Amino acid sequence: MNTATVVVTLLLAGLFTFSSSIKLLGVPKSLAIRDHLGVSSMQWRVIGALELAGVAGVLAGLLWPPIGIAAAIGLALLSIGAVAFHLRASDRVAEMVPAVIGVALAAATAVLHTV
Q: What share of the chain is helix, strand, coil (3-state, %, to 5)?
């Protein structure tokens, strides 16, 4: 495993640890985003739990790459869904940046595990 894989995986894990924790802890700014996007409170918690599971998976992938690849793909799909919700809400590009970064880091993590 090369250094780039470890660094990108840790960046991805950091991003989604933050994202999942604000959802699961009910941080007011996160709840405002949830309401703006039209997501139910149950869906928001499920998304937060899936993000946290993805973090565990990509970190485990540092020891067993297949699980890291699967988890990274799952996080990429969650992020694509976030972009879709932002587009549906007619959000500006600036509001989509974290989701787009999530897609990029997740894709990079999956690809780096295969080289």
A: 85, 0, 15
Answer for the pair 74, 57: CB distance below 8 angstroms, yes or no: yes
8 A C-beta contact, residue 90 and residue 103? no
DSSP 5-55: HHHHHHHHHHHHHHHHHHHHHT-HHHHHHHHHHT--HHHHHHHHHHHHHHH
pLDDT tens, position by position, 8-62: 999 999 999 999 999 999 999 999 999 999 999 999 999 999 999 999 999 999 9
**Best CA proximity match to 84, nearest among 49, 56, 47:** 47
Q: Is the pTM of this model over 0.85?
A: yes
Residue 76 CB neighbours (<10 A): 21
